[in-house]
Amino acid sequence: MQATTTTTTTPQKVKHGLAAGSAAAPQRADWTIDQGWEHYTPQEHAVWKTLYERQTKLLPGLACDDFVEGMRHLPMSADEIPNFEKLSETLMRKTGWQIVAVAGLVPDDVFFEHLANRRFPAGNFIRGAHELDYLEEPDVFHDVFGHVPMLMHPVMADFIQAYGQGGLRAQQLGKLTNLARVYWYTVEFGLVQQKEGLRIYGAGIASSFSESTFSIQSDSPNRIGFDLERVMRTNYRIDDFQETYFVLDKLEDLLALANTEFAPYYARLDSGPTYQPGDVLPTDTVLHRGTGSYHRARAAAAATKV
User: Fold this and answer.
1) Rounded to whole angstroms, what are the CA distances from 144 to 138, 221, 267?
2) Contacts for 235 with CB less than 8 Å, ≥ 6 apart
3) Which of 269, 287, 292 minimizes the C-alpha distance to 226?
4) Which residues pair with 199 in a beta bridge?
């Protein structure tokens, strides 16, 4: 019998939405598509189940009470990828939001227009079983599991709508980079104080198995009290865990942000420094000065491969 050789190939990465190029733009001007829930395969539902079960076991004691409470009242379970229409029915009754399906990332102006009208665009695809822990594009697990529970909270619901309205203005003023940092360090990677200690409310953390523990329990990152101008001057990482997490005293502080007049901030941001993700300033309210050990080790490992 002739000997055979078995090779293992890594599935080819598929780009979605805006990342797939202009040729992939949907027919609708708002970039929405049908979720196509009936077309999900058993394998895709199984990936959701794996992600959902491990994250719901992990998050008690790490996620804020409002996240856990939001999850409790949503039509979401391990059994299947949620149906956006059913999610929207519950959200609409609670905070007036709805979930709309998109193929992936959408243009900034489209994104802001949706948020300003209490529509949250969620990718309808789910990552492959081979990429549970790292994803270049936000998928249905990040968008729905990570974001939707907090949209059940009136404060977050109002804040994200205000961000959408502010994003449209920031685009016109050429200040989108500064405003995007606010979204990143709150909605995506924010922490909040509770009487039991620091807790997660940001979707990028809440949907990540490894960053959930890193953000709360690791000695490596900085944890700094939230200051708006400081955040607007601070770059962030898109390729790894954050080097710094900004912490709200309470979730209701987002209401003040939602009602902030940003024009004076934008004027000051025309000059002055831009801070790097790991910087700690003398003026910071430092809750924990990180050791930086994680990112130093990552940088050292990368240097040995060069």
Assistant:
1) 10, 26, 36
2) 181, 274, 275, 276, 277
3) 287
4) 192
Distance of CA 306 to the CA centre of its chain: 31
Query: 165: buried, middle or exposed (CB in 10 Å: 19+, 13-18, 0-12)?
Result: middle
Q: What is the pLDDT of residues 156-179, one digit of tens each?
A: 999 999 999 999 999 999 999 999
Q: Which of 16, 44, 114, 142 is catalytic?
A: 142
Residue of 188, 208, 211, 212 marked catalytic? 188
Note the Cα 60 to chain centre separation in Å: 19
**191 near 199, Cβ under 8 Å?**
yes
- Judge residue 268's burial from the number of C-beta atoms within 10 Å of its C-beta, 0-12 exposed, 13-18 middle, 19 or more buried: exposed
Would you call 147 a catalytic residue per the annotation?
A: yes
Q: Are 17 and 105 in contact (CB under 8 A)?
A: yes
Among residues 116, 118, 112, the alpha carbon closest in space to that of 100 is found at 118
> How confident is the model over 121-153, as pLDDT tens digits?
999 999 999 989 877 789 999 999 999 999 999
Which one is catalytic: 113, 137, 153, 207? 207
Catalytic residue at 142?
yes
Secondary structure of the chain: what % helix, strand, coil (to 5)? 45, 10, 40
Catalytic residue among 114, 147, 153, 295: 147
Is it the case that residue 305 has pLDDT exceeding 90?
no
Q: Is 210 a catalytic residue?
A: no
The token pair at 24 is 């992939």
Q: Which residue has the tokens 């243009």?
A: 107
Is 207 annotated in the active site? yes
